[in-house]
Amino acid sequence: MPRQHAPAFTPEAASESAPGGAGERQSLPALQGKMKRDPEGYEEELRQLRRHFESSVFLFRQQAALSSTSSSGGGGDVAKELGDLALFLAHVAPFYPEDLADLPDQIGGLLDTNARALPSGLRVHLVQALILLVNRKIVDLEDTMELFMELQVIGDRAVKKLAVSHIVHSIRRMNQTHKNEIRNRKMQNILFTLLQGEEESRAKRAFTILCDLHRRRVWFDERTANAICNACFHASSRIMIAAISFLLGYENVEQEDDSDASSSEDEAQNPQVILSKEDVYKANHKGTTATKKKKKAKLQRVIRSMKRQQRKSTQEAGSNYYSPLTYLKDPQGFAEKLFSRLQKCNERFEVRMMMLKVIARTIGFHHLVLLNFYPYLQRYVQPHQRDVTTLLAAAVQACHDMVPPDAVEPLFKQIVNQFVHDRSRPEAIAVGLNVVREICMRIPLLMNEDLLQDLVLYKKSHEKAVSIAARSLVTLFREICPSLLVKKDRGRPVDPKTRPKAFGETTVASDVPGAELLDEDFSSEGEGEGEGNESDAFESDDEKTNKLDTDEAMEEEDELSGGEDDTEEADEDQDISDHNSDKNDDGLEYDSDVAEEENDASDDDEQLSEHLDDSESDVSDQDEDNDQDDKSKDSCSKTNKRKLSDYIGQLNAADASLRALKKLAGAKKAETSSDEAGKILSDEDFKRIRELKAKKEAKMALAQHGLSKGTDTRSVTFKIPSSDQLSMKRVDPSMLEAHIRRKLTKEERLELVKAGREDRGKYQAKTAVKQKKTGGLSNRQKQHKKRMPLAASRAKAARSRQEKKNKQKHSGKQFRGRKAWK
C-alpha cells in the first residue's frame, strides 16, 4: 500500500490567507497581478506557492517512478496543477530573484529527465515557462540550447514548434542591434556539433535552424555557410539532399525577414532612365496620330528594357547577389570530394542530377579545374537522355576561360554530333545550337572555321527555333572573331581584326571604366564655350581650299571632254576607272594594314606636304601654259590628260595620308587621356560617369528602336558579358530550349482561349456599335440623307420601273417541274 502524504498546499488556501480578506477565493492570474504590483506584500504567499510547487514535483516524480503509465493514470489533476504553478512562478520570477533563483534548474531538470514520460499538456506548459524565463533574461539561451534541441526529437509536434521558433527568434532578437560574437560562437558550436553527429534526427533539426538563420541573414558568415556546405557530405542521404537543395534553391527564396527594409531599398535602388526632353517630345508631339502612338509604345519598351538591364547589372555586380558557395574555404576540395561521392553513390537519378548541378556551379563560380568532370558528363550527352537540358546547363556552367580547351573539346564535339545533324529533330538541333553558343561564349577557342560555317547554315531552316539559334551564333562570332565567318555573315563589325584571347591570357585594366566619357564631356563643354569660332574658321579655310581644288578639277575635265575625240574619251574613262580601282585597292590595303600606317604616320605627313606642293606647282604651270602657249589641240589634250592622271593619283595619296593622320590623332588623344587618367577622381566625378553612362545607354537604346538618328548602333548590338558575370550568372535550362513550340493538350488550349477572352468585351456587330454611338451622324449617313438631283431621281425611278416590269414578265414563265398532263 503506498504511503499516504499530508494534504498538499493548494492555491485556494494561499488565496484565502491573502491580505484581500479571509475566505476570498482568487485565481492564480489575479494573484499574479497583485504580486507584480506589490511584490513585498506577497512574499509569504510566494513561499507557500513555492513549497506547493516543490511538493507537486515530488509527488509527480513518485507517481512516474511507481507506474510507467502515470501520464494516463490518476495523475491528470496533478499534472495540470503543476503546469499552472510553473507558469505562475515563471511570470513572477523577475520580482523575486532570490526566492526563485533555482526555478530554471528545477524546470530544466524535470524536462531533461522525464520529458518523454510527461503528459503532452504538462510538457507544453513547462516549455512555455522555461521560454518565459529565457525571455526575462533570468537564464541564458546558451545554457538551455542543448535542452531545446533535445526537446525537438521527442516526438511532440507542439513542443518541437515551440522550441524551434524560440531558438530562431531569440537569436534574431539578440543580433538586432549588434552582433555578440562570443555568444553566437557558443551557440554555433552546439549546432555544428549536432550537425556533424551521426544521429539523423538531431542533425536534421540543427541543419533546419542553421538554414533558417542564414536565410534570414542573421548568421550570415563564413562559418555558417561552410557548415551548410559540409552537410553535403553527411552520412545520412536526407541531410545531404536537404543541403544540396538549399544550395541550389537559395537565390529563389524570398527574404521574409527584411520585407519592409527591402521595399525601401528597392525604392532607393530603383533604376532611373535618363532620356532627353527632345526624345520625349518627339515621341509625344511629332507626327500623325498613328506614328505618335507607335513612338510612345517604342519609348515605353526602351524604358522597360533599360530598367531591366540596369536591375540585372546591379544584382550581378552589387552586394545583393549571394550564394553560400561564395564563402567556401576550400572550393577545390569541396568539388573533388562531392564528385567522388557522386561517382560512388547509388542514389536515385534526381539526387545525382542535383549533385551534378552543385559541382558545376562550384566549378564555374570559383573557376576551378576538375578535368575528370567533363568525360563524366560526356557519357550522358544524348538527345533521348532524361532531363538532358539540365545536364547540358550543368556542362555550360562548368566551362570557363581557365579550363584547357583540349579537356572540353571531346564533350563539345559530342554535343555537336549528337544534337546538330540533318536527321535530328528540330527541338534537338535548337538545343544543341544554343548550348554551342553558350559554351563558345565562355571558351571561344573550341570553335573552328569549318564547323562554324556548317552550323551557320541552319539559319535558313524553316523552324523558327533553329533559325533563331543559328543567327544568335552568328551574332556572337561577329563580336568574338568575325574572321571565322564568311564575308556575307560578318555584317559591319566594329573591329574586323578581333580575336579571342589565348588560353591563360588576361586583360589588366589600366584606367577607371568610364573615365573617357568624363574627358569627352569636358572637351565638348570646352569646345562649345571657347573654341567655336576657331574651329569654324579652320573648317572654313579647309572648305575653301577643297572647293578651289574641286572647281579647278571640274574645269579641266570640262575642257578635256570638249576637245577630245571618242577614242580619247574612252581612254580617259579607262584611266579614271583604273585610278578609282587603285584607290579602292589602297583603301582595302589600308584597312588590312592599319598598324603599319599608324607606325608610318610621320612619313605620310611628309608625303602629304610634298604632294600638296607638287599639285600647286602643277596648277601654276598649267595656268602659265594656258596663257602663253597656243599649240595644236592634240598636243594640248595629251598634256592635260597626263596632268589629270597625276592629279588624281595625288588626291588618292592625300586621302590615304589624311586617314593616317586621323588615326594618329586618335592615338595621341588616347595617350593624353591615359596620361590624364592618373588623376584622382572625386565622388562627383563617379556620379557624373554614372550619369553619362546612363545617357549613352539611353541614346543607343533609342537608336536601336528607331527613335533617334545619327547614332552608330553597331557597338551595342550584342554586348558580351565578362568572365566574372558569366560565372555568377546561373544558366537556366529552360533558356536552352527557348522558342521551341511543344504540342499543347486540349485543356491547355482551352485555358489559353479563356485567358484571351478575359480582357475582351462581349462581341457586338459593327452596325450595332454604330447605332449606340452618341453624337452626330457620320459623313456616309449624311450623304445618304442628301436630296438627289432631279435627273438622278428620274433615272432611279425609271430603273426601278424597268426592273419591276422585267420581274413581272418572267414571273409566270418559270419552270415548276414536269407536267403530269398535256
Structure characterization notes:
Residues 88-461 form the SDA1 N-terminal domain. It comes from Zizania palustris (Northern wild rice). Residues 775-820 form the SDA1 C-terminal domain. With 822 residues, the protein is mainly α. It has helices spanning 11-16, 28-37, 43-66, 76-92, 103-114, 120-135, 141-151, 157-174, 181-196, 200-215, 222-230, 237-248, 259-268, 277-285, 289-317, 331-344, 349-366, 373-378, 388-397, 405-419, 426-442, 449-456, 464-480, 487-490, 515-529, 532-563, 566-592, 594-599, 601-628, 633-676, 683-704, 723-728, 733-736, 746-757, 766-772, 779-785, 790-811. The longest helix is centred in the last third of the chain and has 44 residues, at 633-676. It is extended, with a radius of gyration of 44 Å.
Using brief descriptors, characterize the structure shown:
mainly alpha, 822 residues, single chain
Question: Which helices and strands, and how do they pair?
Answer:
Elements: H1 11-16, H2 28-37, H3 43-66, H4 76-92, H5 103-114, H6 120-135, H7 141-151, H8 157-174, H9 181-196, H10 200-215, H11 222-230, H12 237-248, H13 259-268, H14 277-285, H15 289-317, H16 331-344, H17 349-366, H18 373-378, H19 388-397, H20 405-419, H21 426-442, H22 449-456, H23 464-480, H24 487-490, H25 515-529, H26 532-563, H27 566-592, H28 594-599, H29 601-628, H30 633-676, H31 683-704, H32 723-728, H33 733-736, H34 746-757, H35 766-772, H36 779-785, H37 790-811
Helix pairs in contact: 2-4, 3-4, 4-6, 5-6, 6-8, 7-8, 7-9, 8-10, 9-10, 10-12, 12-17, 14-15, 15-31, 16-17, 17-19, 19-21, 20-21, 21-23, 25-31, 26-30, 27-30, 29-30
